[in-house]
Design goal:
This protein has 285 residues and is an alpha+beta fold. It has nine helices and twelve strands. The longest helix is centred in the N-terminal third of the chain and has 24 residues.
Length: 285
């Protein structure tokens, strides 16, 4: 509050008063601009609302699956009331660290349903037929029953020549997620992430973690932003191979001229546990 009025005045004098000599002498003498509703892009707003909803649900799915944000995920499926222009896909992929996204019309293939009779209500309605009703529900396709329930508001069939009609309050419904997938929803949007991580994705996750730790060490060592460094590491064969296979990318991201395997700790060194793998890192100018 004390300095913002002066900073805004400096910007105004530089960018406005210097160019438009008839402009007011101070930004604080100007009127607020009048909004031009012709510039409102309703389609852009709709797309970004959907992007936000997908990202919120995607982050929730990551948390449910206990997958760190720096660990790339192969694929995500999205079910939404409207489609999304592909120009917005990159935002989603970047925000959620996911390789690809696919819009689908139904997420039923990632979810299974089990139906049981609600004894509190069915006992009064159907008496002796309740066991047979339970057998019918148990032997039926849960996804087909759920589709019928959503479409018609009730499940209808016959038992011993008696017409049975079961609305949702007469049913106990259990939901199970398909192994290897996690689903979460935000408003009317549902996302499903594939939690099956390939060796390539796992390696990329390690690379991102190593880069993050080295960048943290640069800051803790009080290096300048453009300082070139040498990175050395020791104590872990698995991470040593990852360093070797991804040396060029790591060098580029952390401004390293050299990455060497060495127990020499001349510089700023620190021991880390990266996804359960212990390693000692050292950075020096």
């Amino acid at each position: 509050a004390p300095f913002v009025p002066f900073r805004s005045e400096s910007i105004y004098l530089n960018l406005v008063k210097n160019i438009y000599k008839d402009a007011p002498d101070s930004v604080h003498l100007c009127d607020f601009p009048v909004a031009d509703e012709a510039y409102i892009d309703s389609e852009l707003e709709r797309n970004m609302d959907l992007v936000l909803s997908i990202v919120v649900a995607g982050r929730a799915a990551r948390n449910t699956a206990n997958i760190k944000n720096r660990q790339p995920i192969g694929k995500m499926y999205v079910k939404a009331e409207t489609s999304l222009d592909k120009a917005y896909y990159d935002i989603i992929l970047d925000e959620l660290n996911i390789k690809s996204v696919e819009f689908i019309s139904d997420v039923a293939e990632f979810t299974s349903y089990t139906f049981k009779p609600q004894l509190k209500t069915l006992g009064r309605k159907y008496g002796k037929l309740v066991p047979a009703i339970g057998n019918y529900l148990k032997s039926s396709d849960g996804t087909a029953l759920m589709n019928e329930l959503k479409t018609n508001g009730a499940i209808k069939f016959e038992v011993d020549s008696t017409a049975i009609e079961l609305p949702e309050e007469d049913l106990l419904i259990e939901t199970a997620k398909k192994e290897g997938f996690v689903a979460e929803s935000d408003k009317t949007t549902t996302v499903v992430i594939d939690t099956n991580l390939t060796p390539e994705l796992i390696e990329e996750g390690f690379v991102r973690e190593l880069i993050s730790k080295i960048q943290t060490m640069r800051k803790e060592a009080d290096f300048e932003v453009l300082d070139r460094i040498t990175v050395s590491y020791s104590g872990n064969e698995k991470l040593a191979k990852i360093f070797t296979d991804n040396a060029d990318k790591i060098k580029t991201d952390v401004l390293a001229d050299n990455i060497i395997e060495s127990s020499n700790t001349d510089g700023y060194s620190k021991e880390w546990s990266i996804n359960g793998e212990k390693i000692t890192l050292c950075v020096s100018k």
